[in-house]
Amino acid sequence: MYVCLCRGITDTQIKDAIYGGATTLRQVRQELDIMSQCGRCGLMAKQIVDETLASHQLAGQEPMFYAAG
After folding, report:
1. Where do runs of H (alpha helix) occur along 1-69?
2. DSSP conformation class of 67
3. Which of 23, 43, 52, 65 lies most in the core, judged by the most C-beta atoms within 10 Å?
């Protein structure tokens, strides 16, 4: 489904960015240039990022990122 109509970004592209290593909405935004025009996609994009990260962790898979330090 299209999340950002201005840029033509889909939910699949957002999920792919997360599976590719993005761990925050900010990183997804930088990678896909989402939320850079009208901003209406922001809430949906955040929800997709949060749900994708949560489902990955609930599935018992390795963490997608590690704490620095």
Report:
1. 11-19, 25-32, 42-58
2. -
3. 52
Residuewise pLDDT in 10s, the chain (69 residues) = 999 999 999 999 999 999 999 999 999 999 999 999 998 999 999 999 999 999 877 666 555 555 555
Number of structural domains in the chain? 1
Rounded to whole angstroms, how far apart are CA atoms 44 and 46? 5
Q: What is the pTM of this model?
A: 0.80
Domain enclosing residue 53, as ranges: 2-58
pLDDT of residue 56: 77
d(CA 22, CA 35): 16
* Residue 17 forms part of a structural domain: yes
